[in-house]
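INFO  loader      accepted 1 record
INFO  loader      residues=155
INFO  predictor   begin
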Amino acid sequence: MAKSLTKTLMLPNGDPQTDVGRIIAELKSLNETLYGLYGRLFGNLPAAGAPAFTRGASVAVAAADLVIPVTHAIVAKTTGGVEALTLADGDPGQVLTIVLSVHAGNGTLTPATATGFATIAFTAALQTATLLFVDAATGWILLGSGGPGGVPTVA
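INFO  predictor   done
INFO  writer      dumping tokens
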């Protein structure tokens, strides 16, 4: 399933989409698929109590809130100017998608622990980054990114 990114986000069924709510709903479905795939590839995910994050759930993060929560699978971030965003370590197998839902300034994300990148700069509305938390040593890895106005800058 190829996703084409032009001026709108193309959903897996080929439906062009600019509605943030619909995009988040599609990302929730993708997140569940990735979570299940990780469990099949690497064994059962931690079962001691409930996970610290809510699979398939989304949360909106307001402008000037600089901490990206690891408590939900989808984070819809609004920026209110140039923002230095932080991301704590997650739970092994956790898949997190960050969507820049409203762009009023660039937001640069710096995870506490990451492999393959140090920062992700969100510079346009509807840019996304999907991350997987592997373990405490590896941290977050980038599974993919996109957006109708170009992909976020990964450095």
